[in-house]
Amino acid sequence: MMRARVPLMVGDAPLLAAGIGAAGLSLALTAPGEAWFTALDTLMETGAERARAEAACADQSALLRPSAAQAARRWYETLQEYRARCLGFSAGRV
User: Fold this and answer.
1) Phi and psi for 66 in degrees, rounded to 5?
2) What is the pTM of this model?
3) DSSP single-letter state for residue 1
4) d(Cα 2, Cα 38) in Å, to the nearest integer?
5) Exposed, middle or buried: residue 30 (CB in 10 Å: 0-12, 13-18, 19+)?
6) Does residue 22 contact residue 56 with C-beta atoms inside 8 Å?
7) Fewest CB atoms within 10 Å of the CB: 16, 42, 43, 44?
8) Is 55 helix (H, G, I), strand (E, B) or coil?
9) Which pLDDT does position 85 carry in this prediction?
10) What is the mean pLDDT of residues 40-56?
11) Is the separation of the CB atoms in 2 and 8 below 8 Å?
12) Of the given ranges (4-18, 30-44, 73-87), which has the lowest mean pLDDT?
């Protein structure tokens, strides 16, 4: 959804709130229904607030979903680290 520049509305679970960042709204799961409706109205607004939320979606999406090159580089680094640990273990250094 964020990649499509659609702001999100989530419960206040820590991982969800951290995951959306400024790309949406986080509400207490125990908040009354009226608070959820007001938040939904806020997300549906047009104008400057909507443009800000859409830009935040694009930014947050880029953070959460790295490019293929970034993912490949991180995978390579992880494999190299694992290899070094294995070699250290087999040499008795670990």
Assistant:
1) -65, 160
2) 0.51
3) -
4) 20
5) exposed
6) yes
7) 44
8) helix
9) 83
10) 79
11) yes
12) 4-18
- Give the type of residue at 74: R
Contact 9, 39 (CB under 8 A): yes
In this structure, what token pair is assigned to residue 57? 């979606």
State which amino acid sits at residue 56. A
Question: What is the phi-psi region of residue 47: left when phi exceeds 0, alpha when psi lies from -120 to 50, beta otherwise?
Answer: left
Structure tokens at 17: 């709130």
Q: Six-digit token pair at 85?
A: 């640990």
| Residue 10: both structure tokens together | 């989530």
CB-count burial class (<10 Å; 0-12, 13-18, 19+) for 24: buried
Strand partners, 8: 24
- Rg of the chain's alpha carbons, rounded to an integer? 20
